[in-house]
Design goal:
12% strand; two-stranded antiparallel ribbon; single chain; 7-stranded mixed beta barrel
Length: 681
Amino acid sequence: MSKVLFPLALANLRKNYRLYGPFALAFVTSVALLYNFITLAFNPSLSSLRGGPSIVTVLALGMIILAITGAAIIWYANGFVFKQRTKEYGLYGILGLERRHLLSLMWIEITVFSGLSALVGIATGVLVNRLILALYQRIMDLSLELDTKFQPQYLWTCLTLILLLYLSLIVINSWRIFRLKPLQLVRESRRGEKKGRFTWISALVGLGLMGYGYYLALSIENALAAIMVFFLAVLLVTAGTYLLFQAGSITLLKFLKGRKSYYYKPENFISTSNLIFRMRKNGVGLATICLLSTMALVTLSAGISLFLGTESAINRFYPTDYSLSLNYSYQVPSVDASKTLEEQLSQFGQKYQLDLVDMDHTHYIQVMGKFHGHDFTGQEVHVDSETGMVKHDNPDKESATLNIISLADYNHLSGQNYQLSANQVLWFDNQASAADRKNQEIQVAGQNFQIQEHLTSNLLETKAPDFTMNFVDHRTLLVVSDLSAIQDKLAGTNFISRYTVYANSQASHDQQLASAEHLEDVLKTVHVDEGIPVNASFLVKAEIRDSYMQMIGSIFFIGIFLAAIFLLGLALTIYYKQISEGLEDADRFEILQKVGLTKQAIHKTIRKQITVVFFAPIILALCHLAGAYHMMSLILRLISAMRLEDILLPTIGTALAITLFYFLVFLITSRSYEKIVSSKS
C-alpha cells in the first residue's frame, strides 16, 4: 500500500500548490528566523560584553516568544490547509481507503512537506546568518566581532524545536481524521461557525471587555503600574475583539436587516445577507488578522521609538561625560563636599589622560512630594519600628520633584546676576499653565515665598544627572537666597542633599570606556560624613550609553524579528481568507447569475463585501494602537526617559507603513480571489 500512498501524497502536494505554497513560505521563514535567533542568543562573543548575561537573557526570551509565535502561525496555516482538504480525504474514504490509510497518507504528506521546508529554512538561515549578525552588530554599535562560525549545537537546538512542531502537526491532524467519518470529512470544508442564539449578549460582553481594556489603558498614570496593568488590558481587548467580530458584527447587520427602509434596497439586500453569512463563517479569522496587525503595530512602534529616542534620552539624562556625586539622604552634612569631589575628579582625569574640560560643581536639595494648588508638601518618611530602616511611599501620578538651589550657585551656573531678598525666589515648573505663570506666590514646606521671576528652563537638567526623570513627570526648580534657611523646614521629608561635580572629556570614546573600569578606586576615597546615610555615585556617560544601547538594541532587534513574523502571519491569514472567500463566492456567483443579476452587479456587490470584511480588521487595529499609545508611552518613558515626540512620530510612521503593507497584501492576494471566482463565471 505504501507504494501507492507515497506517489499519491506527492501528487496531492503538487496539486494543492496554491494552499501549500504560502504554508511553505511561512514554515521556511519561521525556521530561518528561529535559526538566526538561536545563533545570536547563544553566541559566545556576547558573554564577554559588559552586561552580557542580561543581553543573552533578553535574547533568549525573545527566542522563546519568536518560537511560540512562529508555531502558532504554522498551526493556523496547517488548520486552514487541512480544512480545505477534508473533502478530498473524505472522498478517499468513500472510495475505499480505510482510516489507517488516510492517516498514513497524511503522515507522508506532512513528513515530506515539513522535511523539505525545514531543510530550506535552515539552509536559508545559514546563508543569511552573517548578514543578520552584522545587522545586529551595527544596531548595537558593538566594537567586538561576533562569532560567525557554524556551531553544531545551534543546528541541534533548531532541529529539536522543528521536531516538536512536526509531532504536534501529526497529532493534530491525526485527531481530526480519527474523529470524523468520510461523509463528515466531505462536509467539513463547507462548514462555517455555528449560528449563535444570543449574539447580542456576546456583542455586549465583547464591547464591555474592550471598553474596560481601553479604560485601563487610558486611565493609568503611574509608569510602574502600567507594566502590571498592560497584560490585563491586552487580555481584555483580545477577548473583546474576538467577541465583537463573531457576534458584534452580526448583531449590527441583523439590526440593519430589520430596518425595512434600508434592507429592501437592491444595493443593500444581497450585501447585507451575504455579510451576515461571511462574518459568521470568518469571525475568528478576521479577529486574528486584527490582532496580528495590532501586535505588529505596537511592537514596531515601541521598538523604533526606543531605538531612535534613546540617544537623546541619554543626553538629557546624563548631560555631561563625567559626574561624581554624593547624595545625603534626609539630612544635610555640615561640610561642603564640592571641593573634595573636584579634586577627586581632576586627579582621575589626569591619571587616565581624559583631558577634562568644562568642570564645575553644584549643590542642591531634591525633594519628592506633591502640589496642592501652589502649596508643595514634601513626602513624609518614617522609621520602621522592627528594622530601623527609613521608609517612604512610592511616587504616583500626582508626585512631583522639587529641586532647590541657592542663588549663589544658580548665578554661578547661569552666568546671571539675580538679586533676591529672604522671601523672594526664582521659580520653574515644567507643567505650569499660562495662569500658573501669572501666580506670584509659592508655598514650600509651610513657608511662603514671593516669585520674582518665572524661569523658562530648568538649568540643573543641563548640568547634573536627574534620576527621577523617567518616573516623575512633574519637575520644578526653586532658587532661594539662602539654602540653609529652608533645610530645617524639610526635616522628616523625603529629600536628598546632592553635591555633584561634572565635566566633559575630549578623550576618545574607547579611552572613556577604559576609564570606567576604575570607578571603584575613586568611590573608595570620596569624603563621607559619618552618621548620615549617603550614597556615592560616579557616572561615565560612554559606559552608560554602551550599556543602554546594547540592551535597547537587543529589544529593537527582537522587535524587528517579531514584527516580521507577525506581518508574515498577517499576510498568510489574509491570503487564506481570500482563498476561502473565493471558493465561497465562486458558487454564490453562479447562483446569483441564475436568478438574473448581471456580472457587473454581482462583481460590485461582492467587491463591496470583500472590502468591508478585509478592511474592518486594520481599522480596529489602528483603534487598538491609539488605545494602547498612552500606556505604551508610559512604559517606554520609564525605560528610557523619552520625550512624547520621540514616541509619537515613530508611532504615526509605523501606522502608515503597516497600513500600506496591509493594503498591498490585500491587492496582491486579491488576484487569487479573482482567479477562483472568474473560473466559474
